[in-house]
Structure formats: structure tokens, C-alpha cells
Design brief:
Blueprint (H helix, E strand, L loop, with lengths): L6 H40 L4 H6 L1 H25 L12 H19 L4 H18 L16 H20 E2 L5 H13 L29 H12 L3 H26 L5 H14 L18 H23 L2 H17 L3 H15 L6 H8 L3 H9 L1 H8 L9 H9 L4 H10 L7 H18 L5 H8 L13 H39 L12 E2 L8 H13 L5 E3 L2 H4 L16 H6 L1 H4 L1 H14 L9 H10 L2 E7 H13 L2 E7 L2 E6 L9
Parallel strand pairs: 3-4
Antiparallel strand pairs: 1-2, 4-6, 5-6
């Protein structure tokens, strides 16, 4: 007998029909807008468009992105209504599962207690994952996982998580000297709207050089920030550190929610666990947590914490449903990732390669090819920059780190013991056999390629040893750990009901308590909390601004790197003798080794570092050669340099916060009395 739907069922259906499209619209509109903006920025670089022209096109891109988002949401809604949740082959809790759990614990114990046995750990992990794939050998035949609907309550919780993410990002301050380049690009574009975009160096301010790294020309985040700063006014540093970073913080939970919805019905809990792990995983400067809330003002952090989860979710959706709309989402998510950072040139092809492996099925060659096809864009861009980049290769670090060292640095000495088990156990702890197969093949591919101690040196030579550790960004590994934690709780509950659930929760809490000692937000991680609008120490920012304002027209500033690195972020700034050691070294192809050495020695001299080369006369000659009008020294360096600076026509302007500022007197040639 046919029964009519109850009012409760009707309310639930309406609730799902309302909340799910809103969720998809937020995510897909972001992907579409940023993907289209990346294409436009890359085209602007190729055709040497002025920044004024590029920025005027942003409203058109936003309108097109929103309309594209609406089109993509309509397709998603239609596909979702046509899919029926059917029974799947679910890995049942059995002795075999318990045996795998014990085996995983023993393998991780090898990693924990035998610090020099990484190769043994790797071999055992590969064998373990091969065995998992054998156990799930029919998983690729299982019915596609059907993402659960987004309820109104779920959407409200997700919005609350977005608010928490934004609040942490706004209030937590951890300055990063890399912003001399990233925010420098923003300030330089706004200050010179009639110059071609990304064709000149924003660091030294001389107008002589190109970008320190040619591959930075692929970025679009900085040009997005610059466009907002140009339209609405205000300091670029405030736009980058506060407004744009907070916007990305709002998007972060939605990105992870899209990924978690593609693997588990408990996606809200999974998203919350990911955010908690990102707060806790902050042991090292390279740790995953230090590229989350405290660093979302940089494109590389957006890449690893927003773009990569979106890329995996979109790739898996395309593999499940196919069609033009799903592939368009995948292509736009690829472009979004490319625009985040130059590191995407090797990370995105690696990520899409992993996705293609996980979605392979017999007689589905073209869909597998279509999954990896968007990688042709970053590959083509990388090949286009190959000749320009080859001149910089000789300046990069050639010491190749070991796989063991990279794992400890990126995953953390303690954090690795929640990430690595996640790679091993998550395939066995999901409800869907198809998802289990995808996670298992992804984990095995990660171990065979990225974590392989025998291939790591080859990758280091291919992508340079300075950034080879970023290969670990090519998969959303924090999501794997979150899946494992959810699955372990379900597993314990099924084995021992309430006692098992309590034991699992207590064990998880114990792990989190241990990780709080290495939290991303701890003071020892150079994190402070305040409501100031920039992430820079106020005294350092004020000193840098004072030094820039004190330089007479046509003169340069010489300052220690802690001060010099913030001067390129100002709209009105003088040239700099040196910014940081790494930039002096990487600029050698453009400025000659001798000039790079002189600039470096001058910066080290005012920083109080012994150079052992310059006599007073040589020091004054170099000041004159680089037209120095302001010298900032440390207190230690001032005692030995003050007499020479006074003789050369400088006056002691002010002394504060451990630094001394000397300004050239009017009508005096730089460096000469």
C-alpha cells in the first residue's frame, strides 16, 4: 500500500534540498571564481598586460564564477537526486581486521623505537598496504559511495567551524619573512599599475631585476589581493594578513568538508577533527599545522589546506559520476591549486596522478585519462619556465635531505604517529568498500612514490632539495588521520559496545593531550594573539616604515633582514641593498656573484655578524656605490660602525628596540662626507 510522506519526512527533504545546494554553491563558486582568475592572471603574464587592465577585469571574473557555480550546483543536484544509496560491500569487523590493527601497531612501533630503521618501516608498510588491497580486492567493483545530504543543522555547524577558523586566523600572529616576496608582489602591483604584471622584482626596488624565481609568475593569489587593495584602498599588508587570510580561513572548513563527504557519512566530525589536528600539528617550522591557521596569508598554505582537499574530492566525484559538469569542477579545482603557489607545478600533477590511480577500473581508460588530464596545465607551465628556472638552479641548496628527516620535519616527531597510522588504517575503517579501495591505493601510491627512500633523492634533484619536502603536500594526509580516528571509535564500539567506545575516546583524548605540547598555537612556536591587523611585530613594522620614510629621494636603505624584509610590503618604499640571504643567493644570475656578495656582506655587517673583510674605507665605498641614504644597525653593530657613519655624513636619528637608525644628512653624497 502506497503511503504518503509524513510532515517530518517532508521537513527533512526540504531541509536537505535547501542546505545541500547552499553548501555546494559556496564551494563551487569559490573554485570557479579562483580558477577563472588564475587563467586570466596567467594570460596577463604571457601577454604582458598592465596590472591596471588585469584588475579592472576582476568583477567580470567574479560574476562569471558565480554563474558557473550556479550551473555546477544544478548539475550536482540533478546527479544527487538520480543516485540511490544501495548496499555496498562493507569491510566487516572481524578477526582479520583485528589482525591488521595489531600488525599496523607493530609496524608503527618499528618507526617509534628504531629511529634509524626508516627503510624497514617503509618496506613493512608497503607489504601491509598490499595485503590490505588484497583484502579489498573487490572494492573497485563496489557501488560508488553516495555522499550524505547536508542538513540545515550540519550547515550551521559548518558555518560555526568556519567562524572558529576565521577567528583563530585573525587573532593568531606568526610573522613570516617570506612575505617580503609575497606581500611585496601585492604592494608593487598596486604602486605600479601601469607596469606589466609579474615581470619585475618587488624585493630590491631598483627596477633592474626580474622575479627572484621565474616560477612565481604562475601565482594569482597575490594579484587577487592587489586588486582588492587597489579598488578599496588601504595598506597591502593589512589586506594580505587580515582580510584575505580571514576569507581563506572561512573557506578552509568547507574544503575539508567536501573531502570528508566523499569518504564518510560522519563528515562533520571528520571536518572538526581535521581542524583540531591542524591546531595540534605544529612541532616544526615545516609541520602541517604551521601552514594552516597561522599562515593562511600565503598561497602555499592555501594550496595544502584548501586546494589539495578540493582536488581529491572533485577527482573522486568525477570518477564516480562522470559527465561534463564534474570534469569542469575538476579542471577548475586544478586551476585553483595552480594559482596558489609555484609549488603547484609539481604538487598538482603528483596529486592528480594519485587520484587517477585510486579511480582506475578495467574498461574505464578514458575516465582515468580525463582524471589526470588537467595536470597537463601545470606540466606545460613548468616546461615553459624550465629554461628561465635552470639559471637559478645553481644557486639552490644541493644537500639532499633523507626521507626520514623530511617525514619528521613535515609530519612531526610526534605528529607522525597519528598521520602514518592514518595512511595504514583508514582503508580498513571506512564503511564503503569503494572508498576503502580508493584510500588503500592512495596510501600505497604515497608510500611507493613520495615516502620511498630509494626514489626521494631523484625527486629532490627534479624539484630541488629546497622544496622537496613539499611533496608530502600532494595528498590530504590529515584527512586520512581524521578518517582513522572516526573509524577506530566505531570499531571499538562494535567490539565492546559502551566500554569499547569509552576506551577509544579516552585513548584519542590522551593522544590529543600529548600533542598539545607541540600545538601550532603555542608561544614557543612564535605565535602571539592580539587584534592588530598585521602579523608583524608592531615595533619592527614601525621601524621599517620609519627607515623607508627617512631615506632621501634616490637613495637606498641598508638594514638587517628582520627590518629590511618588511620594506617591500609598503606602497612607497626606497630601494634596498639587501633583503635576505636567500634572495641575495638566488639573485646571482641577475646581479653577478660579486654584487650579490657585496650586498650580503653589507647586510651582515649592520646585523652584527662578523664579515672579516671590509676596512672602514671599503665600507664607505660600498655605501657610496649603492647610494645608501639610511642605515639601520643592531645595537651590537652600531658600536663599531657609528664613527665611520658619522664621518660619512650620517647622523644618528634614533635608537630603539635593539636597533639604531642612521640617516644621511641633506646635501651629502651617500657614503661620503
Amino acid at each position: 500500500m502506497l503511503s504518503l510522506p509524513t510532515p517530518t519526512d517532508t521537513r527533512k527533504t526540504t531541509e536537505h534540498n535547501t542546505a545541500t545546494p547552499i553548501f555546494y554553491f559556496i564551494v563551487y563558486s569559490f573554485i570557479a571564481c579562483f580558477g577563472l582568475w588564475t587563467i586570466l592572471c596567467n594570460a596577463a603574464y604571457v601577454f604582458s598586460l598592465k596590472f591596471r587592465t588585469l584588475s579592472s577585469l576582476l568583477p567580470i571574473v567574479l560574476i562569471a564564477g558565480i554563474l558557473c557555480g550556479l550551473w555546477l550546483v544544478k548539475g550536482t543536484a540533478n546527479q544527487g537526486s538520480q543516485q540511490n544509496a544501495t548496499k555496498e560491500t562493507i569491510p566487516k569487523a572481524s578477526r582479520l581486521t583485528e589482525a591488521y590493527l595489531v600488525a599496523a601497531v607493530l609496524i608503527v612501533s618499528v618507526r617509534a623505537f628504531y629511529h634509524n630503521a626508516y627503510t624497514a618501516f617503509w618496506v613493512l608498510s608497503v607489504i601491509f598496504l598490499v595485503a590490505v588491497l588484497i583484502a579489498l580486492r573487490h572494492g573497485w567493483q563496489a557501488t560508488n559511495f553516495v555522499a550524505p545530504p547536508v542538513t540545515r543543522a550540519g550547515l550551521m555547524i559548518l558555518l560555526a567551524l568556519a567562524g572558529i577558523s576565521a577567528a583563530i586566523t585573525f587573532a593568531a600572529h606568526r610573522a613570516d619573512w617570506d612575505d617580503s616576496m609575497y606581500v611585496g608582489l601585492v604592494a608593487d602591483a598596486v604602486a605600479h599599475p601601469d607596469l606589466p604584471v609579474l615581470r619585475h622584482d618587488p624585493l630590491y626596488g631598483t627596477g633592474r631585476f626580474g622575479l627572484v624565481m621565474p616560477t612565481y609568475a604562475i601565482d594569482s593569489i597575490e594579484l587577487f589581493t592587489a586588486t582588492l587593495a587597489r579598488f578599496f584602498g588601504g595598506p597591502p599588508l593589512v589586506w594580505a594578513h587580515t582580510l584575505v587570510a580571514t576569507f581563506f580561513a572561512l573557506i578552509l572548513p568547507f574544503a575539508w568538508a567536501l573531502f570528508m563527504r566523499s569518504v564518510t557519512h560522519r563528515w562533520i566530525a571528520g571536518t572538526a577533527l581535521v581542524m583540531l589536528l591542524l591546531i595540534l600539528l605544529g612541532e616544526d617550522n615545516y609541520s602541517l599545522g604551521n601552514f594552516a591557521f597561522v599562515r593562511l596569508f600565503q598561497g602555499k598554505s592555501v594550496l595544502v589546506n584548501i586546494a589539495i582537499p578540493l582536488l581529491f574530492a572533485c577527482a573522486w566525484r568525477f570518477a564516480a559520476v562522470g559527465g561534463l559538469r564534474a570534469w569542469t569542477i575538476l579542471l577548475l579545482s586544478t586551476l585553483t591549486a595552480v594559482g596558489c603557489s609555484s609549488s603547484s607545478l609539481f604538487i598538482v600533477p603528483m596529486a592528480l596522478g594519485i587520484c587517477a590511480v585510486t579511480t582506475w577500473r578495467p574498461n574505464a581508460f578514458w575516465r582515468t585519462f580525463a582524471t589526470i588530464a588537467p595536470a597537463l596545465y601545470p606540466i606545460a607551465a613548468g616546461l615553459a619556465f624550465r629554461r628561465a628556472f635552470s639559471s637559478v638552479l645553481t644557486t639552490l641548496i644541493v644537500l639532499i635531505p633523507s626521507t626520514d628527516a623530511v617525514v619528521r620535519a613535515v609530519l612531526g616527531r610526534h605528529g607522525q604517529f597519528i598521520i602514518l597510522p592514518g595512511l595504514l588504517l583508514s582503508p580498513l575503517l571506512v564503511r564503503s568498500a569503494r572508498v576503502g579501495w580508493q584510500l588503500a591505493t592512495a596510501s600505497l601510491t604515497i608510500f611507493l612514490l613520495i615516502l620511498n627512500p630509494f626514489l626521494f633523492a631523484a625527486f629532490a634533484r627534479l624539484v630541488t632539495s629546497e622544496v622537496v619536502w613539499r611533496l608530502l603536500w600532494a595528498a590530504p594526509v590529515v584527512g586520512f588521520a581524521s578518517i582513522m580516528l572516526i573509524g577506530l571509535t566505531e570499531f571499538a564500539e562494535s567490539r565492546a559496545s559502551l566500554p569499547g567506545l569509552v576506551a577509544s575516546v579516552l585513548a584519542t583524548l590522551s593522544v590529543f593531550v600529548v600533542l598539545t605540547r607541540t600545538s601550532t598555537l603555542r608561544t614557543a612556536n612564535r605565535v602571539s594573539f592580539s587584534l592588530q591587523l598585521t602579523k608583524v611585530r608592531p615595533d619592527i613594522e614601525d621601524l621599517a616604515r620609519t627607515a623607508a620614510a627617512a631615506a632621501p629621494d634616490g637613495t637606498a636603505v641598508l638594514a638587517p633582514d628582520a627590518v629590511a624584509c618588511w620594506i617591500p610590503t609598503f606602497l612607497k618604499r626606497p630601494p634596498l641593498v639587501s633583503v635576505r640571504a636567500v634572495y641575495d643567493r638566488q639573485m646571482v644570475p641577475q646581479m653577478s656573484p660579486a654584487e650579490a656578495s657585496e650586498r650580503r656582506r653589507l647586510r651582515e655587517l649592520v646585523s652584527g655578524k662578523p664579515t672579516g673583510a671590509e676596512t672602514p674605507a671599503q665600507f664607505l665605498d660600498l655605501l657610496s656605490r649603492y647610494h645608501v641614504g639610511v642605515v639601520v644597525t643592531t645595537e651590537a653593530a652600531a658600536s663599531s660602525l657609528q664613527d665611520e657613519l658619522l664621518k660619512a655624513g650620517f647622523s644618528l636619528s634614533q635608537r630603539r628596540d635593539g636597533y639604531v637608525l642612521f640617516a644621511l644628512k641633506k646635501n651629502t653624497t651617500a657614503g661620503r662626507p
